[in-house]
Each structure stands twice: as structure tokens, then as C-alpha cells.
Request: fold
Amino acid sequence: MEKVIVSASKKYEILIDEGILDNVGKHVSRCCSASKVLLVSDTNVFPLYGERVISSLEDSGLETIYYVITAGESSKNSESLFELIDVLADNEFTRFDVIVALGGGVVGDLAGFCASIYLRGIKFFQVPTTLLAAVDSSVGGKTAIDIAQGKNLVGSFYQPSGVFFDPQALSTLPDEVYADGMAEVIKYGVILDGELFSQLEACGDHIGVEQIKRCIEIKRDVVEKDEFEGGMRKLLNFGHTFGHATEKVSGYSVSHGRAVSMGMRIIAKACYELGSCSFDDYSRLCALLDKFSLEPIAAFKGEALADAMLFDKKREGDSISLVLMDAIGKCRVEKMSVFEAVKILYLGS
Ligand code: GLY
Reply:
């Protein structure tokens, strides 16, 4: 078993272990004094792992109620949130009871946000089943739902009380969902770890537990230094400003990881054009994205992307912070006018 400890506003363990899906109950009981669990999952994941997790929770003496949302981003909304709240209240969940999120980013974000507001906050645990959730969304405490005006616009910083990841879950992931997670894995190499990037260049078409753990450690280090995204955590947004704009312009038909990979290509090209990184570094990034099936997607017009970017939730008045690449493994956050950011977008498109 591999373990990463996060010491943020809450201290918790991230456990990586083959077969941990059958031991979720044991770990939840160890970390809290709940008597009831609401297991939240989705229509893709619940049929695969729901029964195993329920058995493990019940075997540990935890009364388990489950709630299954329709798989997909469109479920991450206020309707699902209030349905979950109703289930908790109807079943008389108290502040000592907990939520367990079994699934990818949508389930984790929704269940985490619900946990952060029900009774002003109850404990929750993440059991990520996608690569993206394992290396990114289950770690660090960002929770949210989407509203008509945009993605993740209503949410909270609320750390889980434990994260339990079973690498066996990756074996059932469709290729395109695996590739989605690889975009975030590659991002960690670009922003902070040239050695990880080289390992990704050298490995086969799937990564191992060693690289997954490394990504989690990088995120842990960043979150411990800047939990509420006042500074360094913004590095994790490399490729995300143009990525979010791409997602939005596509009407969310382009998945998050794919959009971020496109955003990374755009910003890296602009950085090369501006002389901030070398052509070799830019080319290495493009080649690695290609290797993991994150090929360039049909370009959306710069104008539409620029419009979408103007409404980015990370905009600070007339400024925006972009993450620029100096080299593989070395990036920096630069605050600039929105006008400058639009120029960079055009340069990289
Ligand atoms: N996904 C970026 C962050 O958690 O800050």
C-alpha cells in the first residue's frame, strides 16, 4: 500500500492500494465515528463497484444508503445537490455521519460540495475511479456544482477526510477517459517535475502507481503551501484558462482533459513564440500529448475563445493570471491585463 498524507486545513490520508475497494468500510470507520454512510455514485461506476463498496461499509457496521446519479457533467447541478440533501435529511443524517463519493470528478465534486454545506459540514471520503479523479479532483478540496452561467461557479474549498484509490479501477476505463486523466498527469510534469515528464516520455501507453503517486505528491505539496489558491496553486491551472474557454465554446462536448491538453498546446506555442521556452520544449510537450492520444482538436475560433475567457471565474477585475512555461518542469504565474492574455491566445492559436 502507498500512502500520501495531506496536511492542509484538515489532515488526511490518501491510500493507494490494489483491492482497497473491498476495504473502504474499514478505512472509513478508522477515520471517523459515523454510524451512517451515504454512498454517492453514478450510473457507469455503481454497477461495476457499488456492491463491493456497500458490502465493505456494511461489514464494518455502517448503515449504508446509496444514491446514484446519471453519469456525466450534466448531473453536477443544483437539482442533484438538493436531491442529495433531501436523502440526507430524510434519513436523519447527523453531523457524525458521512458521505462516500465513489466515481470520477463529477461525483466527487457534487458529493463534496453537498458534504460541505449539509448541517454546515459533515465528513466525506473520496473513492476515485478515474485517473483524473485520482491525480487531481479527489485531492485538495475543491468542490463545486455547475450553473447555467458556467462550470464550477458554485462551490467551496472543503477537504475530504480520506481518499482511497484502487488502481484496479483503471482497468475498466474507456481509452478516452484514461487519456483525459493523462492530460492532468502531463501537466504536473510540465509545471513542476521534469523528471516525471521524462518518465512519461519513456513509458508505455499506461502509467504505473509510481507516477500516479508522484502526481498526488506534487498536488499535495502545492495544496499544503497554498490551499485557497492565493498564489502557487494557480500553477495547477496551466493550460486551463484556454482549456475552460474551449470546453465552454464546445458546449461541453469536449471533455475537460482534452480541452486542457488543447489549452496547454496553445499556451506552450505562445511561450515559444514569445521566447519564454525553447522550440524543443514546446515540441516535447506536443509529442507527449500525441503519445497519449491527446491530439489537437479542431480549433475553435480565437474570437469565441477570447469571449469565453473574458468570463473565466479566475479573472481578477481587468486582469487574469496565466501560467507560462519557461521549460519542461518550470512554469510561472503571470498576472496580466485581459487584453494581453487575449494577445497570447491569438499567438498560440
Ligand atoms: N484542479 C486544480 C486545483 O485543484 O487547484
In short: Residues 136, 140, 142, 233, 236 surround glycine (CB under 6 Å). The chain has a mean pLDDT of 95.
